[in-house]
Amino acid sequence: MEKIKIHKKFLFTEVELIRYLKTVKKFSKIENEILATLTYKKAYDKLHSVNTLVSFPYKENQETTISKRPLFLAKDIGNLIKEFAEENSPIDSLLVNPTKKRNAIIRPLQIKFVGKGNSELLTENTILNFIKRKSHYEKNNYTLVLVLEGKTKIKLRKVVDWLKTNFFPFGEIVLISPDNKTGIIEFFQLKPSKETFSSIKIDKDEMLSAFNKIR
Question: How far apart are CA 172 and CA 29, in angstroms?
């Protein structure tokens, strides 16, 4: 499993990342991943009553250059991430506990978008077929974040039951399901789970409140 290092220049607050996102007219893959990370962070912080930071794997052979890179403007954050984030890492982003020096990394996230560009209804079979293709990974403590894009009709219990009875290498798997009509974002933790899986709804106003506070 990949050893993860954190660079202090690659540690960001929610406000800093949202300030950057507000400068972007059209989101690319990295902006969509940042937004998915912030959604996960919002749910995680609510469930665990913490205030985490966000980080990204970086090109370790560029540490000196990264350390000297100034971050004066919001767009500088995006340029830094795009230029020096390690694209070959299986991890897209990280949640970090700023109060701990040891075990500071709470969640390494791998983010995937399911249903993008596809008009078909997303069902439990869509999710199961997707995660089965991930079963060849070695066992790890990563979180697999599946962002659902499109119409959904998913029997989550079937997915949870499959995860309980079959090997799946990721330590955690969550679904993020935005409703474009209501603006509500639903968060489901399918693994690990007990009798019931964890779920939380994030209201559009709550998710966008941080955007609106930033000038």
Answer: 22
Cα dihedral across residues 70, 100, 98, 55: positive or negative: positive
Question: What's the number of CA atoms in the CB half-sphere (13 Å) around residue 154?
Answer: 26
Banded pLDDT at 214 (limits 50, 70, 90): very low
Can you tell me which residue has the tokens 């996102």?
Answer: 21
The domain tally of the chain equals 1
Domain around 115:
8-213
Residue 3 lies in a domain: no
**Tens of pLDDT, residues 155-198:** 999 999 999 999 999 999 999 998 877 778 889 999 987 655 67
Read off the pLDDT of residues 122-167 as tens digits, 9 standing for 90 and up: 999 999 999 999 998 899 999 999 999 988 999 999 999 999 999 9
1 found inside a domain: no
Please provide residue 39's backbone torsions phi and psi, each rounded to the nearest 5 degrees. -65, -45
How many angstroms separate the CA atoms of 85 and 54, rounded? Answer: 13
Phi and psi at 197, nearest 5°, equal: -85, 155
Question: Which has the closest alpha carbon to 195: 144, 159, 161, 166?
Answer: 161
CA distance 203 to 201: 6
One-letter amino acid at 33 equals E
Q: Is residue 109 part of a domain?
A: yes
